[in-house]
Amino acid sequence: MTLSRASRSPALDAFSANFSDNALGPVRTLGRTFRLSIVAMLQMALDLVRGQLKVREAVVMAWYLVSVTALPAFLMAIPFGVIVTIQIGNIINQLGAQSLLGAASGFAVIQQAAPLAAGILLGGAGASAIAADLGARTVREEIDAMRTMGVDPIQRLVVPRVIAAAVVAPLLAIFIVVVGVLAAFYLAVTMQGVGPGSYWQSFGSFASQRDMLLAMVKASIFGVIIAVIGCQRGLEAKGGPRGVADGVNATVVVSTVAIIGVNFVITLIYTVFFPLQIG
């Protein structure tokens, strides 16, 4: 019996360790991410009341995010508008309802393509840069030195990055909407045989300010999620450069999955309370 228990002990220990790392580990990480987001929001509100927001750091980070995402946003917006126009245009032409092409393409770009593209761009370029920066500071023990000197890393580093991402994401969404709708308009007029006036009339009949507000709110939420995930992965980096690289990779994957899931929930809630109607 003693030998049997001893022979099973390594297997049980390996199973327990594997279960703790692979099954419970992500749950604990999710809990720490939620905790960091709540602490960051409370710290942001407290700094706003006290007038101690790190505006300079937020502006510098916002400018960096704009610089690394503006050109990719332009290059992504054009294919979004073109693909939507081609796919929907073929169906609409078969139904003989070419005048609705503006409504369909504009509706898809505003509500879905723009905030998702802005979030994916920030997750791929912005959040990875945030994770790399904070991860490098963590492995160099700069974060521990800040805590030793009485400087709160959340107030000094996390909050400005959350503010920057929350501001830049809606701006990117607006930019993508403009470029995507113009690209869809050009393709619809030149290749689909839709009149310019008919396109804009159907666009204005279905698209509304509420849809644009939804896109900006979604993009802002995505920005906050991306920044929090990037900061959390960066602050928890360990193991030298390899740990920083792992944190950056995890940031991109987790932020993309989180954006898609949150987008689904927000879209579902919005369509329930605000169904599509002609303006």
UniProtKB/TrEMBL annotation:
Cited Pfam families: MlaE (PF02405)
GO molecular function, one term: phospholipid transporter activity
Keywords linked to the UniProt accession: Membrane, Transmembrane, Transmembrane helix
Membrane-spanning residues: 61-84, 116-136, 157-189, 212-231, 252-273
Domain of life (superkingdom): Bacteria
Cellular component terms (Gene Ontology): ATP-binding cassette (ABC) transporter complex
Protein name: ABC transporter permease
